[in-house]
Design a protein that fits this description.
The complex is a heterodimer of chains A (188) and B (571).
Chain A (H helix, E strand, L loop, with lengths): L1 H30 L10 E4 L2 E5 L36 H17 L23 E2 L1 H5 L2 H8 L3 H10 L1 E2 L10 E3 H11 L2
Antiparallel strand pairs in A: 1-2, 3-5, 4-5
Chain B lengths: L2 H29 L9 H11 L9 H25 L15 H12 L9 H4 L2 H30 L10 H26 L10 E4 L5 E4 L5 H9 L20 H26 L2 H28 L2 H4 L18 H14 L14 H13 L8 H21 L4 E2 L2 E2 L2 H31 L17 H16 L14 H30 L16 H16 L3 H14 L2
The chains are: A mainly alpha (188), B mainly alpha (571).
Chain lengths: 188, 571
């Protein structure tokens, strides 16, 4: 046993230094050169930090575009999904309630126009995005609440629609926080 | 074509395009041939000199196992102590407390065995110190342990080898310096430039657009996420794993994480061909594994893209597919692909919540872990596959009345006993665990644990049963993903899955190495007309049949009670 134990201890020590010490410090150094300086990229409005570009936040007022339902109420210090199974009757009741709530806030919208991501919780509870259809379906409500024209907002959503990677791979999406900041700036 | 499906095809083809040259490179490294990373040799010499290791000393299979088990025991004790004490150790800006003894027991084993089942949440249950000095360190060394064990197997399968099977320390250290570290570095740099955080700053606070106060967990995430996937570990920084927007910011990082986790498992299949100079055999192995993957992947993508029939009845638009537990930036097709590769390859990281997936998808994920060798985890995937090869050779030998031989060595009773035991161990530890937990849920609902058995299950009926089945399957397969609704943060689950994980790791390493070691010591019989050819399609079909019968059918009753019943009730 001694033949192996002493080398094991020493090898462990030096590998800890290399893999857990030197390697992440080197990456932290590289991180300083990136746009967010390794601290995470933030977005500002009127000179104040209002959120992280990558993380969704709660929007419940009619004058903002809403993001997706969140199982953790957009707690950015405790991420998670609902972990509800597809056949769970309580879960299906929750979804039905969300649909009714969405219809109440968006008069004129039919059930078939509501994209499913607007009534189902995301995996992280911090999903920053909705689908372009999810944004368009809210245009009428936001326009009315802000006294803006629907055409203007439709254009704004189009401008904030991010295309698939290289135009070829993956879904299109709209970052809700960025869209709402642009919306506030539109008023000026 | 639909951009979601083309994204999946692109990701797989990119993986393949990188895995073939990497396989050739890995074979060269372990044959001791020249490679372009030879400038690292002085670093390796320094490591060996510091540790007092003679890396040229040949070992037999028992000595290899002694070395492997000794150093793994050291890591287990080290990890356990650090996790208990993390509250008092440095690099704890969020002031998180130490783990309870049973959680630390579970977590230490979990990361040691490359499983990465997490019964805590990264934001509150770990510190920057333990994330790096325990988890990330173990990400590297547990992957290297698996690969080093596989190289011993490669060596033992070579012609005319006796009991000199190379040096364990040499294989182990070179796996880290020549393969894992350089590739992780490149991947982590890609991540950093796509917004993943790298600094050691603690939580941040801001006021949101609507005026809510928000606390944001951060940390040096990028370095860990790189090796988390490359080493098929899967233990994430945040509770939501790679569904979390900092741990997986966009489609490009998602593609990178997907390629990273499948890269080495596929590369090792090709490395086998290059190392032994039996490329045709490697193609047969690759073919069997790929067909197995497609068999699980296609129904899963189909189920997720079609969406939840119970939600379709409510009349909302499900054109994008099922979205509960999924992120918009990845979409259902990609999430389906991820959920299958992460389960066939023991990674266990997730970019969507498996608990909320369609029943058919859950069924396929479970099968992926039950088989556990379609590509499989770093090194251990092929070790598991080797057991099925031995059984297939033996059965084919009996069927055609020839002596079962594999690569010039006779397979006899002793090897078959070991192979059968290892093959049956997997269903045994899963189903026994499941039986005990089912009994506890029904007969001891009020037991006084951190989470009472009556509130373990987040979903009623068949799906609740699937949550327990998934937890033990994931533990035994050293996968680490979960149906996370399960209330597993208590002593019952910590202890039982801890035991299942440790059995599911070391016995399937010891078994194949013992067989290979025994075979290498036997007389080499040159190929003749009477030899069963191992590099043919027929033999591939034979292996496939053995896998399906042993690994998949033994679980059929449990699957029927869980995901299959749920599938048929969901209309």
């Amino acid at each position: 046993m001694k033949t192996y134990l002493l080398p094991s201890l020493k090898l462990t020590l030096i590998l800890i230094v290399i893999t857990a010490g030197i390697y992440p410090l080197a990456i932290a150094g590289v991180g300083k050169l990136t746009p967010g300086h390794g601290d995470g990229e933030t977005l500002t409005y009127k000179g104040r930090v209002v959120g992280y570009a990558l993380e969704g936040q709660k929007f419940t007022k009619d004058e903002y575009f809403w993001g997706r339902p969140s199982a953790v109420d957009y707690n950015a210090a405790g991420s998670g999904g609902s972990n509800k199974g597809p056949s769970n009757p309580d879960y299906l009741k929750d979804v039905e309630k969300r649909i009714e709530d969405f219809l109440k806030h968006n008069p004129g919208v039919t059930r078939a126009q509501i994209p499913v991501e607007m009534v189902t919780a995301s995996g992280s509870g911090l999903d920053p995005d909705i689908s372009p259809a999810g944004a368009q379906v809210q245009v009428a409500r936001v326009a009315k609440a802000r006294g803006l024209s629907a055409d203007q907002l439709t254009k704004l959503v189009d401008e904030h629609t991010e295309k698939p990677m290289f135009g070829l791979f993956g879904p299109s999406k709209v970052n809700v926080l960025k869209l709402n900041i642009a919306l506030e700036e539109l008023k000026k | 074509m639909n951009t979601e499906i083309s994204g999946v095809i692109f990701t797989y083809l990119l993986t393949l395009a990188l895995a073939i040259p990497l396989g050739r490179y890995i074979a060269r490294v372990f044959k001791g041939e020249k490679t372009w990373l030879d400038f690292l040799a002085p670093l390796e010499r320094f490591i060996f000199r510091f540790s007092g290791i003679d890396a040229k000393k040949e070992m037999n299979w028992k000595q290899h196992l002694f070395a492997l088990l000794t150093i793994n025991s050291v890591w287990l004790i080290y990890a356990f102590v650090c996790l208990m004490a993390q509250g008092h150790l440095p690099l704890n800006p969020d002031a998180n407390p130490g783990q309870s003894p049973d959680t630390a027991f579970n977590t230490a084993i979990s990361f040691l065995v490359n499983c990465n089942l997490q019964h805590y949440s990264g934001e509150s249950g770990a510190t920057y110190f333990t994330q790096h000095f325990v988890f990330m360190f173990l990400h590297f060394v547990s992957a290297a342990t698996g690969i080093a064990a596989l190289i011993v197997l490669f060596r033992a399968m070579k012609d005319k080898v006796t009991d000199k099977l190379g040096n364990f320390w040499d294989y182990f250290v070179k796996t880290i310096t020549r393969v894992l570290l350089p590739i992780s570095f490149v991947i982590a740099v890609i991540f950093a430039f796509n917004g993943m955080t790298t600094s050691y700053a603690g939580k941040d606070t801001f006021i949101s657009m609507q005026g809510d106060t928000v606390h944001v967990s951060r940390g040096p995430v990028a370095a860990l996420v790189a090796i988390k996937h490359l080493g098929t570990n899967g233990g994430g920084w945040f509770g939501a794993n790679s569904a979390h927007p900092i741990e997986n910011p966009n489609y490009l990082t998602n593609t990178t994480e997907l390629v990273a986790q499948v890269l080495i498992p596929i590369a090792l299949v090709f490395a086998l061909g290059f190392y032994l100079n039996k490329k045709k055999f490697a193609y047969v192995v690759f073919g069997v594994m790929t067909i197995g993957m497609l068999l699980f992947l296609i129904p899963t993508m189909n189920a997720e893209l079609n969406g939840n029939p119970a939600i379709a009845k409510m009349g909302v638009s499900q054109t994008t597919g099922a979205m509960e537990g999924k992120e918009v930036r990845f979409g259902p097709a990609n999430s389906a692909y991820w959920s299958i590769v992460t389960t066939i390859i023991s990674t266990g990281s997730v970019n969507s919540m498996h608990d909320s997936a369609m029943p058919m998808s859950g069924n396929m994920m479970l099968l992926g872990m039950m088989v556990n060798c379609f590509y499989g985890g770093c090194g251990v995937g092929i070790l598991n596959f080797y057991i099925f090869i031995i059984i297939a050779v033996f059965i084919s030998g009996l069927m055609v009345g020839r002596t079962p031989e594999f690569f010039g060595r006779k397979i006899e009773a002793r090897e078959m006993k070991v192979a059968s035991l290892i093959a049956l161990l997997h269903p045994f530890i899963i189903l026994v665990g499941l039986a005990i937990s089912s009994y506890v849920v029904v007969h001891m609902p009020g037991a006084d644990w951190a989470v009472k058995p009556s509130s373990w299950l987040n979903n009623p009926g068949n799906h609740g049963f699937s949550e327990m089945l998934y937890e033990y399957t994931s533990s035994a397969a050293n996968n680490g993903s979960g149906f996370e609704g399960l209330g597993d943060g208590n002593i019952f689950w910590n202890v039982t899955t801890g035991i299942v994980m440790i059995l599911g790791r070391f016995l399937p390493i010891i078994g194949p190495l013992a067989i290979a070691g025994l075979l290498a010591n036997k007389k080499f019989i040159p190929e003749s007309a009477g030899t069963l050819k191992s590099d043919t399609t027929t033999f591939g079909i034979m292996i496939f049949a053995v896998i399906m019968i042993i690994a998949a059918l033994s679980f059929f009753p449990a699957l029927a009670l869980g995901p299959i019943a749920e599938h048929f009730s969901l209309k």
